[in-house]
Amino acid sequence: MNCNVPTDICFSFEGFSARGGKTDDHSDGWGIAFFEGKGCRLFIDAKPSVSSPIAEVVRCYPIHSTHVIAHIRKATQGEISLENCHPFRRELWGKYWVFAHNGDLPDFHPQSMGFYHAVGTTDSERAFCLILETLRQRFPGGQPNVKELYLALREITDLISLYGTFNYLLSEGEHFFAHCSTKLSYIVRQAPFAAAHLIDQDVTVDFQELTTSSDRVAVIATTPLTDNEVWTQIKEGELLIFQDGLPLKFT
């Protein structure tokens, strides 16, 4: 989720967490990260999200954030363990960076990633480390402007994508990057707000009762979370930046 004012993700989380062992077979762990100013709350668990006590805490605790990244794991590489749960978090340029990957990168074993090293054994964490190491070496003086950052990220993303399926979400709490390799969709909710009904749970929320006319929220998911709203499919190979609840695109 990316939005222009701090918002809770309780509604989307109901449908999201059900996919971790109830309505889908992604039951090899899960995690969620909330950016709050310079801070970042990170919750991960190797248990399926549908039965995780930590998921119950998140479900009952309406944390407000402008950037949220959540992931339900179906293991393709690496054992089912806490260190292999997404999202992954690292520091770069004095900011937390958070990354989650959906896909598989067979034979992706970069020889040297310099400063960053994977703690677990997933291709996903190795890809994240390579992204950050590339940015660190490319911009040693600090974070560049958003267009330079986008172009550098576009370059390393295209390189890693050669190894397989590389759908991912990435944020440092200011910008929200989404790359579609095979399947990724988004919706922007803004005035006039309407009711939304979850696909995975029989839950409906009327956002008009919970929002102001200036609120704007973008939700990005592998597959749509609701069945009565129009979701936009991101094109294969496309990298988007979301800011203040809107997708931006650099060419």
Structure, briefly:
By secondary structure, the chain is α+β, with helices and mostly antiparallel strands.
Provide keyphrases for this structure.
alpha+beta; 4 helices; single chain; 6-stranded antiparallel β-sheet; globular; 7-stranded antiparallel β-sheet; 251 residues
Task: Give a description of the structure.
The chain is 20% helix and 31% strand. It has helices spanning 10-18, 53-60, 123-138, 146-161; strands at residues 2-7, 30-36, 39-45, 65-72, 88-92, 95-102, 167-171, 176-179, 185-190, 195-197, 204-206, 216-221, 232-233, 239-243, 246-248. β5 (88-92) and β6 (95-102) form a beta hairpin. α1 packs antiparallel against α2 (53-60) and α3 (123-138) crosses α4.
Query: Unreliable segments (pLDDT under 50, ≥5 consecutive)?
Result: none
Tally of alpha and pi helices:
4
Hey, roughly how much beta strand do the residues contain? 25-35%
Total number of strands: 15
- The residue-averaged pLDDT reads 89
Radius of gyration: 17 Å
Protein name: Class II glutamine amidotransferase
Pfam families: GATase_4 (PF13230)
Keywords: Glutamine amidotransferase
Domain Glutamine amidotransferase type-2: 1-245
List the helices and strands and how they pair.
Blueprint (H helix, E strand, L loop, with lengths): L1 E6 L2 H9 L11 E7 L2 E7 L7 H8 L4 E8 L15 E5 L2 E8 L20 H16 L7 H16 L5 E5 L4 E4 L5 E6 L4 E3 L6 E3 L9 E6 L10 E2 L5 E5 L2 E3 L3
Antiparallel strand pairs: 1-4, 1-12, 2-3, 2-4, 5-6, 6-7, 7-8, 8-14, 9-12, 9-13, 10-11, 14-15
Helix pairs in contact: 1-2, 3-4
